[in-house]
């Protein structure tokens, strides 16, 4: 079947011709010094019609591992499609990225500000612009996140239960785990769903940290999906999955029984049996000892790496039902 020539696309009022690459500026508020802040948007528009894929990261400014994944997609030229179009935004929350913090300067979580408003808070205005200027062009979205506050996530894809299309795409991506989770109100994922744009939400690693295994998982998964959509250039090799993706239907948090110094004795992604020792809490003087044991058998896909914890802190996220 012959390829059909693509038409120009228009983003932020600028025309992007088939077969061209453009870097646009997602401009909004300035710094206190009146210094402008421009968020680069890299558009690769091929000569031929095809899907439009959006890659986003840094919606939370301290989640730099996601930024690293999209950076690699761009720097290696993986985002240059042989059909269709890719739109890459490596850092959405540039304010948070500059300060190495999660939220916007107004204290709001951008991922709880969608679909936004034209004249609302700064976070709401950015969400509004993203949903009205970028997302209407998009067929698929890949949003890259990490765990927060010392909690290291095993690389996994989050999708809603009973979405067969996204489940199929997630299996093509082939992260170690797929986690069924509900779309949160006012999240980017939920806003995209309401606009009919399917999203794979990737989680891996922890905030303010870059892990090469997590980065490689995100890059390789993106290549597999682009290949599946017929968009990946032939010069790129697609690695075959070494293990099938494990689908987690339900899960629970195991929390600290006491405050103190914490050390995990298992690795993220590990399968544990009920009653197996997972970690240890003690005080600086060696007077108290609490052994954290698995409440059930399952896969541990999030481990708290903080050396000091308080009673009630989430230590491990473990599957309770695997499909």
From TrEMBL:
It holds the Pfam family AstE_AspA_cat. Keywords: Hydrolase, Metal-binding, Zinc. The keyword Metal-binding applies. It comes from the Bacteria. InterPro entries: AstE_AspA_cat (IPR055438), N-alpha-Ac-DABA-like (IPR043795), N-alpha-Ac-DABA_deacetylase (IPR053138). Residues 50-228 form the Succinylglutamate desuccinylase/Aspartoacylase catalytic domain. The keyword Zinc applies. Its cofactor is Zn(2+). GO terms for molecular function: hydrolase activity, acting on ester bonds; metal ion binding. This is Succinylglutamate desuccinylase/aspartoacylase family protein. It comes from Halomarinibacterium sedimenti.
């Amino acid at each position: 079947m012959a390829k059909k020539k693509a038409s120009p696309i228009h983003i932020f009022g600028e025309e992007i011709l088939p077969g061209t690459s453009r870097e646009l500026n997602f401009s909004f508020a300035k710094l206190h010094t009146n210094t402008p802040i421009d968020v680069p948007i890299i558009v690769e528009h091929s000569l031929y019609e095809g899907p439009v894929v959006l890659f986003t990261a840094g919606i939370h400014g301290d989640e730099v591992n996601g930024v690293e994944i999209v950076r690699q997609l761009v720097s290696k030229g993986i985002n240059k499609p042989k059909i269709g179009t890719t739109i890459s935004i490596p850092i959405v929350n540039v304010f948070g990225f500059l300060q190495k913090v999660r939220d916007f300067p107004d204290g709001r979580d951008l991922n709880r500000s969608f679909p936004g408003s034209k004249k609302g808070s700064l976070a709401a205005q950015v969400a509004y612009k993203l949903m009205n200027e970028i997302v209407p062009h998009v067929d698929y979205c890949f949003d890259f996140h990490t765990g927060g506050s010392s909690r290291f996530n095993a690389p996994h894809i989050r999708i809603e239960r009973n979405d067969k299309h996204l489940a199929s795409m997630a299996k093509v991506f082939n992260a170690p785990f797929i986690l069924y989770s509900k779309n949160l109100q006012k999240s980017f994922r939920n806003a995209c769903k309401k606009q009919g744009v399917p999203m794979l939400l990737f989680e891996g690693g922890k905030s303010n940290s870059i892990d090469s295994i997590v980065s490689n998982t995100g890059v390789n998964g993106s290549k597999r999906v682009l290949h599946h959509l017929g968009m990946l250039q032939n010069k790129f090799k697609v690695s075959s999955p070494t293990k099938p993706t494990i689908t987690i239907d339900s899960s629970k948090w195991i929390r600290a029984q006491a405050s103190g110094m914490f050390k995990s004795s298992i690795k993220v992604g590990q399968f544990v049996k009920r009653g197996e020792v997972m970690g240890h809490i003690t005080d600086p003087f060696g007077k108290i000892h609490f052994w954290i044991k698995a409440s059930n058998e399952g896969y541990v896909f999030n481990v708290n790496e903080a050396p000091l914890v308080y009673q009630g802190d989430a230590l491990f996220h473990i599957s309770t039902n695997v499909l």
